[in-house]
Design brief:
six-stranded antiparallel beta sheet, about 290 residues, single chain, Replication initiation protein, five-stranded antiparallel beta sheet, alpha+beta, Alpha-Beta Plaits, 2 domains
């Protein structure tokens, strides 16, 4: 039987559930207006160093008729489309970082002195490219392969030009690394110490923000890519999802049961204010 779930469920389900919504939700559930089953998309990202796996589960409605599917903008505004693209890009970057970087790798910030300021973004990116080439040349002389990296450049009139970079940490100490960047006197480099549960999600979230100008990320080609999510129509039945949505304790218990070996970290539950269909986003970890 064909199901319809090709829609932007994060756009369709925006209202967070809290204690003040309980009466309204009970009313919607009793009316039983929504006819759906739930599809679960599961993404597992395993860090190549620690072998810790961070799991993301997205549970959202799938409908028997196209007309039942929540209405979202078929042609979103350019701003809305940019926001959606940014959201997807940020989530991808965080997964990419969590898979490829871990304990002992480097998190650095480099800038430019007044007398070495780049004239434009193109010049700034050329400086960064030359810097990475120097690092790889130095590593090659030591019999090591090219670094893995993700960098973001902040370059506009509101902030002083600088870039953040996540990079391979073996084979080069911080003093040697800093000596290769000739554009500023005070580079900032530090070793990464991942969180036991969320790995380097915090760093990924930080570098994925876009408050100024061109702050976009660039990555090396030798990174291990995040896997495509696995999808299932049978992992969580409708009544089970409804109980999970109403009770956080039930939600944690059911997720732990559905993903044995994983520890529950956090979850958010939303609905769209029109019917009693829910969207659940949860994170779990296996160390």
């Amino acid at each position: 039987m064909r199901r319809y779930d090709s829609y932007d469920y994060e756009e369709a389900f925006k209202k967070y559930i809290d204690d003040t919504e309980e009466e309204r939700l009970e009313k919607l559930l009793k009316e039983g207006k929504v006819n759906c089953l739930y599809r679960t998309a599961t993404t597992k990202c395993t860090n190549i160093k620690s072998q810790t796996t961070l799991l993301e589960a997205q549970i959202y409605p799938s409908y028997p008729r196209l007309s039942d599917m929540p209405k979202t903008k078929k042609r979103p505004s350019s701003k809305a489309q940019r926001n959606l693209n940014d959201k997807n890009a940020r989530r991808y970057l965080i997964r990419l970082a969590n898979i490829n970087f871990g304990k002992g790798d480097l998190w650095c910030t480099f800038g430019w002195n007044d007398d070495k300021l780049p004239t434009d973004e193109e010049r700034a990116r050329k400086d960064i490219k030359n810097f990475i080439a120097k690092i790889n040349y130095r590593r090659k002389r030591k019999g090591l392969g090219n670094i893995k990296y993700i960098y973001v450049l902040a370059f506009d009139g509101y902030v002083r030009p600088h870039f953040h970079i996540l990079m391979t940490g073996d084979g080069m100490d911080r003093d040697e690394l800093e000596s290769l960047w000739k554009k500023c006197d005070r580079p900032n480099t530090r070793r990464i110490s991942p969180d036991d549960d969320f790995l380097i999600t915090g760093l990924g979230e930080y570098i994925s923000r876009n408050p100024h100008g061109t702050k976009r990320w660039v990555s090396s080609r030798n990174l291990k890519k995040p896997p495509e999510p696995t999808k299932s129509y049978s992992k969580f039945k409708k009544r089970r999802v409804e109980r999970m949505a109403k009770d956080h304790t039930v939600l944690e218990t059911e997720l732990t049961k559905a993903y044995p070996g994983y520890k529950f970290l956090d979850a958010e539950v939303k609905y769209n204010g029109i019917n009693a269909a829910f969207y659940i986003y949860a994170r779990m970890v296996r160390n």
